[in-house]
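Case study B.
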Amino acid sequence: MLGAMVMQPTQIRLVDYPTGTPTDETWTLTHLPTRDLQDGEIEIDVQFVSIDPGMKGWISPWRSYIDPIQPGDVMRAFGIGPVTKSASPRYEVGDVVSGFTGVQTTAVVDSRGVRPIDLGLGPAELHMSVLGMTGFTGYFGMLDLGWPEPGQTVLVSAASGAVGSVAAQVAKRQGARVVGIAGGPAKCAYLTDTLGLDAAIDYKAGPVAELLEAVVPSGIDIYFDNVGGETLDAALMQINRKARIIVCGGISQYGDMTTATGPANYLQLISKSATMTGFTMLDYMHRIPEALTDLSAWVEDGSLRHRQHILEGIESFPEGLRMLFRGENHGKLLIRL
Ligand SMILES: NC(=O)c1ccc[n+]([C@@H]2O[C@H](COP(=O)([O-])OP(=O)(O)OC[C@H]3O[C@@H](n4cnc5c(N)ncnc54)[C@H](OP(=O)(O)O)[C@@H]3O)[C@@H](O)[C@H]2O)c1
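Model:
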């Protein structure tokens, strides 16, 4: 009897939209069997799920770039795993796929909503990080909107994280001088010693505006923004003429989406003829093969560094999500199910 209980699929469901930081009471753990497959659906044995800052938006009652989930729903998440049942001509049992599986051990999804994974390019956890959505986000955000060149100075915030570490290394490959911002000496040492960035700023060590001025004497040509807030304002004060600010994320503002604060120094955009552009990876889904070709080659030859922070077990989800907002993840945060 106990064995049968353990084998039941397990799900993390939203109880209600949290105000502020999600607590343990925001979630409930259920053990429910999966339903029968309809035409076009597949069942996936989910091996890893991704924990992402954007999840904060998915559990707010307002639409962001995607609809929020509803109370009672399984929490939305990217996942990866082998197909265990198929009612779709697209996939056979044993194929490995990735997409929105939700935070659950077994997922039944529309086969059109997932993409096939080539484990020949790397293990499953890499397809959830540097060879997955966060890697693609750093790649397209930097190359398609930033156009870094030799002689230019590029600033990246949350630079030791999943998206930022790829964006920063891509700019470095293009010959730019790259400065990364991260919280704490260990993450800053990772930026310079492991990722090979030219300088690092520990934004927790003092006012970021003062720290920044000292390391970008020639100003900033590209700012890849993952955090918003005070850091975005500090960067605006250092931009050069024709600078590009790429608004990828604003994690410092995700605490309460209703009170997100815009940059006070935005008038710098006028005097510097600069641009500030928001983007979402969802605009680039059709170009994933391009990114995958480059990123997998750079991972293979060792020139693109990456790290995953892997939590064990579905029960680690509530605390894992809070870790992201405390900066306690070192690399792409994942759960192994
Ligand atoms: N536009 C898109 O399509 C897209 C796609 C994926 C992700 N994103 C965005 O990209 C950003 C990075 O996501 P990720 O998945 O790569 O996460 P991550 O960087 O791996 O982890 C989040 C990091 O953000 C930093 N952070 C947390 N709270 C902060 C605060 N108040 N101020 C400054 N930094 C803070 C922490 O690093 P420190 O220890 O350095 O503070 C934390 O480790 C997020 O804003 C996310 O929403 C956008």
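Residues 2-129+306-336 form a domain with the Quinone Oxidoreductase; Chain A, domain 1 fold (CATH 3.90.180.10). The remaining cases will be described in the next quarterly update.
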